[in-house]
Amino acid sequence: MSNYFIAGLPRSGSTLLSSILHQNPNLSVTTDRGIGTNDLIEKTYHLQNPKIILMYRPVLEILASFVQLAEKYPVDNFIDKSMQDENFTPLAYRPVNDARCDWLMRPNGEIDKIFTAFLNSVIYKDWFYLLSYNDLITNTEEVLDCLYRFLELTPYAHNLQNIPQGDTSKDKEQFGIPTLHVVRPQISMSETNPEKVLSDYVIQKYKNSMDWFTEGWLQSQP
Question: Counting C-beta atoms within 10 Å of the first and last residue's C-beta, which end of the chain has fewer, N or C?
């Protein structure tokens, strides 16, 4: 028996992929963003034949996506609430969107912790399938074929013209963003242009955040 998980960076397509795979009644996949990180590596290690689909996307696109959501829901979003509760220092001297990005990228924050899963994907190669948001959107059928080979399962004919919507009823209460996990019924690229959303400060500070991954280990993958 295998254990199947979707993990990786936020805003990188994990909800979309989960919605697609849940069309298959014979496949049970858990979305657990922290699986494979140092915090949960022991739990992962004790699973029988774990299979982890590790999602990634350029960090600036992730930050821009969160900034757009925070601007759309400026009163209740979890980023602003957390910064206020923590008395996050950059709020005192940076524009609010810069502070939002600094909070998202803070040491030991969610994104920083998930980076360790990418480190572990090199150590435990048999556990992980690395999947980019761009490939999922632009080469969906090919990606699904590769995923089923990785999962060692018979391929399934997914309906990519009518992707089911998951349960988003708790998003407003938990995150203050009711559209956080909404997926479109048909696959399309998110209209997120970091250069139009983020300041030069944020772009220069975080544009190379995953160079160690995309220019090193990822290129060495078969």
Answer: C
